[in-house]
Every structure is written in structure tokens, then in C-alpha cells.
Amino acid sequence: MSILIRKVQLNGEVRDILVEGSLIKEINADLQMAAEIIIDGSGKAALPSFFNGHTHAAMVLLRGYADDLSLSEWLNNKIWPTEARLTEEDVYWGTRLACLEMIKSGTTFFNDMYWHFHGVARAVEDSGIRAAPSAVFIDLYDKSKAAEQIALNRRLFEESKRYSNRVLFALGPHAIYTVSKESLQWARDFAAENDVFIHLHLSETEKEVEDCIRQHGKRPVEYLHDIGFLGPQVIAAHAIWLEDREIELLEEHDVKLVYNPTSNMKLASGVFPYTKITDREIAAVLGTDGCASNNNLDMLEEMKFAALLQKMNSNNPTVLSAHDVFQLATAAPARVFNINSGSIEEGKVADLILVDLSDINLVPNHQLIPNIVYSGNGGCVDTTICDGKILMQNKRVEGEEEVLERAREVAFALTAS
Ligand SMILES: [Zn+2]
Fold first, then answer.
1. Are residues 43 and 149 in the same domain?
2. Span from the CA of 356 to the centroid of ligand 1 (angstroms)
3. pLDDT tens digits, residue range 176-203?
4. How far is the CA of 204 from the centre of ligand 1 (A)?
């Protein structure tokens, strides 16, 4: 398959972009060559597509189901009882809906933690995007549950080999308050042996830190360091309540962090210490978290909130510029997740979007990146390409009506029972 995007704005210049197979083959002012598909890029700008660093995609089924509650009440009384009824088919249609929303708003990768691994993985395959799905691993400090979870993850790892390279198996130990020390150590060893990521929630709330000090006599990052868990495979979501010594440990072990501003504000969890993190050599990326605490998967909206929250919190409008926050959703996660995309260059994988420059939010267009971050939203995206394949063109995704219909049915059945 070859695609020629003609006369598109790229970094302020009009360019032709040739995609062959999954790669960007050539970028030039005027490419006079044949291609199977020609896209008229005039009036549009090409940008790398977005990465969502932390989510629970199928939670889109619970969007708007339980709002304005405390994190513990929300999880214990609303989310977990409903999730206990989920089937693999529910998760499949929930994840299809999430993938559709992501494609429509320009995201082509998500780092996921959820139930029914194969429901997620099949939805990713069928939607044409990329993901690092992990099964929620919770043992509640119970040895037999831990053994079950370990056996399940070993099996899922083997079974995940049936999927394309757009599906990256990861381990998903939920958090230190739901997973035992022994299971965390097993995850560390399994991840090192098999070169997979470990995705967990870390220091999301002040309560988590207080409980950890009460239980282990130390703070969460110190605890994880002392049990030998920390390492470059670890992707830690939230990472809000960190002291300087903990930030040093995260840097020392090359742990990657995910900033989830909307969820953190909505659940009043706290503020990600962005300037302290980026003063050091620590990789940080951006995520939406699940739709029950966001309530959408629009990475452009997330970028805006990410920047505004840091400016407000530091009383400094120069902190986290539009260009820097754009990197947190493109080039930075491409490096973290080892995917050869995140920018539009010859030889890179063709994960890219075209935004409509006549969209009302982008007129006039003095500077594209600040414009799209502060004024734009996912609705400005006209075309989404992942792995060299067109997933959306002229804002249309093939089969979108069926996804909406099935997901709606599944969501109502789930919350009615
Ligand atoms: Zn989460």
C-alpha cells in the first residue's frame, strides 16, 4: 500500500509526503510519483499522531456513570462492583468505542490496564491502532490469588504472540495497596526476562502514602526501591506525592512517569511535580486515565489542561509551554514505548494525522502548535493514519455506526443489572 499526501503543511512549509508500507518513505516539495491512494492535503497540516500514556480504555462504558465522588468511594462503591460484571465481549465493545474516540481525536497508541486482556487486544487489532494492554493484576495480599494471577499472566503473555506487532503485552500490577511484595517482585523478574513493560499506579493520593508509611514504615517509592522493584521497564501513572529523595530514586532507576492532569484535578488527587521531574533526567509522558475519571480520551484537551495546571500551580505562565506539552504526547512516549514514530520524518513509521486548518478553532493560524494545543481539540483532526494505513479520512471511520450502537447496548445492560 502506498499513500501520497499532496501539498500539506509540514513544519510551516508545503510538502508532499509519500508513505510506503508502514513507513514514511519520502518528504519533498513536489513528489511527482504514482501512489495507490492520493490525499489532497491542501488546507491541512500534518502532525505526528498522539500517544495516551495511561488509560483504562473500556472504562469509556462508565463515562458519566459516577461523577463527583472521592476516589475510594468512586472505586469501592461504583466502579469495582460494576466492573465485576464485565464480560470479555463487553470489554471488546468498550475498547472499540475508546479506539474509535482515539482515532477521531488523533491518538494511535494507548498504554492500557484493564480486565479481559483479549477483549482489549482484539479491539486494538480490529481498530487498527496500537496499544500496550495489561491485565489488571490484583492479589490483595492473598497467596492463592497471587498464584492465579501469575499463572494467568504467563498464559496471556504466550497467547499475546498471536497478535500483530501493534499489540505490546505489558504487566499491570495495579498499585502497592492491592498487590503483594512477592507479586511485585515476580512482575519485576518476568518483565526483565521477557522484555515487557510493567504498568502500575504510584503515589496517586496522599492516603496511599500515609497507608504505606503506616504499613511499611517508608514512602511508596522507597518501599518499591527496597524490594528491588524499580527499573527501566516500570511505567508509573500519576506519581504525584513524591519527596525529593523519591524523585532521585526514580531517576536512578530510569522509571518512566505518566502525568494525568484531568483525572488528578477531577478526583482532587494532587498535582504532578512536573518541574522537579524535568529538572532531572526522568522521562515523563501524558495520559488521560480512564474515561470514568476524565471523561474523554482527547489528548489535545489533555495537553491544554496539563499546561494550564502547571502554570497555575507554579504561578508562572512560562512553565510547560505548548511545544513542550506537545512533546509529552508525541516524541517522548514514542521513545518510552520504543515505537519508531512520534515525529514526521523519512524512515519513521507512518503514525500521523492531518488537521483541518479551516476548523473554526484554528482560524487564524499564527503558530500551529500553540494554536492546536490551546485552541484546538480532537474535532480538528480530519485524517488519522497508523502503521501506514488510513483509519479515518474526512472525519469518517469505517464501521463507526456499529461500534456506537454495540457499545451503547453493552453500557446500558451493564449498568442496568
Ligand atoms: Zn488509572
1. no
2. 32
3. 999 999 999 999 999 999 999 999 999 9
4. 9
Instruction: Tell me: do 10 and 72 sit in the same domain.
Output: no
CA of 112 relative to ligand 1 center, distance in Å: 9
Residues 31 and 106 in one domain: no
Report CA Rg, the chain.
21
**Separation CA 225–CA 208 (nearest Å):** 16
The alpha carbon of 261 and the centre of ligand 1 are apart by a number of angstroms equal to 12
CA of 238 to the centre of ligand 1 (A): 8
Expressed in angstroms and rounded, the spacing between residue 59 Cα and the centre of ligand 1 is 10
**CA–CA separation, 104 and 73 (whole Å):** 32
Which of 336, 369, 390 is a domain's end point? 336
Average per-residue pLDDT in the chain?
97
For 52, 55, 296, 327, 353, the CA distances from 332, given in Å and listed in that order, are: 11, 17, 22, 6, 17
Assign residue 291 the CATH number of its domain.
Answer: 3.20.20.140
pLDDT digits (tens, 9 = 90+) for 312-341: 999 999 999 999 999 999 999 999 999 999
Instruction: Supply the range of the domain harboring residue 353.
Output: 2-48+342-400
Task: Indicate the pLDDT class of residue 164, thresholds 50, 70 and 90.
Answer: very high
pLDDT confidence bin for 283, thresholds 50/70/90? very high
What is the CA(180)–ligand 1 centre distance, in A?
19
Report pLDDT for 234.
98
Exposure string over 46-63, b if 16+ CB within 10 A, otherwise e: bbbbbbbbbbbbbbbbbb
Same domain as 212, residue 112: yes
Find the 280 Cα to ligand 1 centroid distance in Å: 24
Ligand 1 centroid to residue 132 C-alpha, Å: 14
Identify the CA nearest to 250 among candidates 238, 267, 261. Answer: 238
Query: Do 93 and 406 meet the contact criterion of CB atoms below 8 Å apart?
Result: yes
d(CA 6, ligand 1 centre) in Å: 40
Q: What is the CATH number of the domain that holds 362?
A: 2.30.40.10
Give me ligand 1 centre to Cα 317, in Å: 28
Q: What pLDDT is stored for residue 229 in this prediction?
A: 98
Query: How far, in Å, from the CA of 201 to the mean position of ligand 1?
Result: 6
Give tens-digit pLDDT for 119-148.
Answer: 999 999 999 999 999 999 999 999 999 999
Same domain, 58 and 117: yes
The reply to whether 273 and 311 lie within a common domain is yes
